[in-house]
Amino acid sequence: PTGSGKTTTLYACLAEIQSSEDKIITIEDPVEYQLRGITQIPVNEKKGLTFSRGLRSILRHDPDKIMVGEIRDADTAQIAIQSALTGHLVFTTVHANNVVDVLGRFLNMNVDLYNFVSALNCVLAQRLVRKICKHCQRPAMASRQLLEESGLDPGVYSGHTFYEGAGCIECNGTGFHGRLAVSELLDLSDHIRELILDRRPASEIKRAAKEEGMTFLRESALEMVLRGVTTLREINKVTFVD
Fold first, then answer.
1. Bridge-partner residues for 118, per DSSP?
2. End position of a domain, from candidates 61, 95, 129
3. Residue 139: CA atoms inside 13 Å, Cβ hemisphere, count?
4. What is the pLDDT of residue 1?
5. Distance between CA atoms of 186 and 195, rounded to whole angstroms?
6. Low-confidence ranges of the chain (pLDDT < 70)
7. In terms of domains, do 89 and 168 share one?
8. CB–CB of 14/37 below 8 Å?
9. Does 100 fall in a domain?
């Protein structure tokens, strides 16, 4: 969803892989940060510069790596997939609830399934949660109702010490300071590629990913709560109990 830190993560990826030997070009709507050594093109739909047109023109400049701010239509999706198949590393975002929904979004755009699966390396889904302020962090007990709402067994977690922020001058009395990304990463193995090609249901793809060691959004968020980084109420706002 909007405000989940997708653009910041994309920029962090580009900054990590950037080198003087590679030519990196981005097309964005709008350009949010200026990155040194990277050619950034803003979308201008009034003048006819859409994501799909911009992406076509980028390919004529022989880039090594491409970042497309967002895939909104089938045309852009098709060109991005073709770019990846012809040897370019492509980063992009789509709006979806989780990594498996991303696959559904592309399939609904009627892209060529075989090309899509061949081009795709991995899918990352993320949400942002507020971090408990370190200056006023204090132990707290979770009520039975909150544990049940959070999908936790009260018999197991009723004695567990959770944490909360009391509120201080450092955090303006909110009890939180800074934010952190909660994420799930689907790394496409041969088995998962086969499931997508066979158009298997989302539940089956999730099960296969789980067996291969994938940590889902909710699990990642709960882990942060148990480590005392954030609160149950905070993760309940952005992730759902399965």
1. none
2. 95
3. 4
4. 83
5. 13
6. none
7. no
8. no
9. no
